[in-house]
Amino acid sequence: MPPIIKNKKTKIVVTGGAGFIGSNLVDALIREGFNVHVIDNLSGGKRENVNKKVKLHVTDITDLNKIQPIINGAEYVFHLAALPRVQFSIEHPLEADETNVKGTLNVLVASQEAKVRRVIYSASSSAYGDQKSLPLKESMPAYPKSPYGLQKYIGELYCHLWYSVYSLPTVSLRYFNVYGPRQNDSGAYALVIAKFLKQCSLNKPMTITGDGKQTRDFTSVHDVVRANLLAMKSNKVGHGEIINIGTGKNRSINYIAKLIGGPIEYTLARFEPRNTLADNSLARRLLGWRPQVSIDAGIDELKNCPCPCGSEKKYKRCHGA
Asked: What pTM was computed for the model?
């Protein structure tokens, strides 16, 4: 049966709704008129990212007792809260596991008790690790190369199990290298495109790890948001599916640096998969989703962004908040 969206005041909970992807999703839900509640401990997200029309609950998904009353009464839950980034999980495996595994379990328990119509889980292509062939298909076995990749994969397994055992409708969306407005450009775990843009704005060289020939399937946050909305509304999902959300095209880090323009400095390679490339045929079939934003257009948007997603100057023009 298709999900029933009673009216535009349907309650929706977004965990991690103050973060990069979560806040962009929240804005889209508000534009559609939904009653949105955000759960975020603000460890990675920013209060200023949160749409003023939502109810922000500053709390942690690792505390089941606190998130249960927030999720109660919700029709849909988008679970994006996480301690992201591969390197962070390598350096802080216990802290990452507490949020990425236990936190996800708590969200599923609270959602099952609240009888929500569907949980949409933000998974990660890092679950694939290094594979012998490309593109990466959902039928391939997972070979995560980091605690983060493993933790996100465990979340997928929990989502499928909660559908099988408890009949909680779930769907997991495996994101491929998301970029766009509000991406993190600070610290050791900054996203590469945001880091390059910030380095250029400070008249510093763009630092590339390794030889820069490693490739990624860079996916615009605008396309990721559409995928989430379609996953909420589709009558073809909700049975614990795992679905790739990637463009089906990959580009090298050197190519990204050339698009942005500026001097380059190479540093030691990091422990990470060499290449990623999504097979998005399942997303096309089950969600009716197709990527709309090319990497060239996406970077052009960010280069012309007056903030560029670090400063809050001209915030409304840039982000439509």
From this structure: 0.92
- In the annotation, is 76 catalytic? no
76, 121, 148, 153: the active-site residue: 148
Number of domains, the chain: 1
pLDDT in tens, 22-68: 999 999 999 999 999 999 999 999 999 999 999 999 999 999 999 99
Two structure tokens written together for 7: 């009216």
Q: Are 148 and 84 in contact (CB under 8 A)?
A: yes
Name residue 316's amino acid.
K
The tens digit of pLDDT for each residue in 107-116 reads 999 999 999 9
- Is 4 a domain residue? no
The pLDDT, as a whole number, for residue 321 is: 35
Kindly state whether residue 5 falls inside one of the protein's structural domains. Answer: no
Q: What is the pLDDT of residues 117-140, one digit of tens each?
A: 999 999 999 999 989 999 999 999
Q: Does the residue 172 lie in any domain?
A: yes
pLDDT by residue (tens digit) across 166-193?
Answer: 999 999 999 999 999 999 887 655 689 9
Domain that holds residue 249: 11-319
What would the two tokens of residue 216 be? Answer: 């990624």
Phi and psi at 30, nearest 5°, equal -65, -40
| 15 bridge partner residues | 39, 79
Domain CATH code at residue 207: 3.40.50.720
Q: How far apart are the first and last CA of the chain?
A: 34
Distance CA 120, CA 118 (A): 6
Domain contains 110: yes
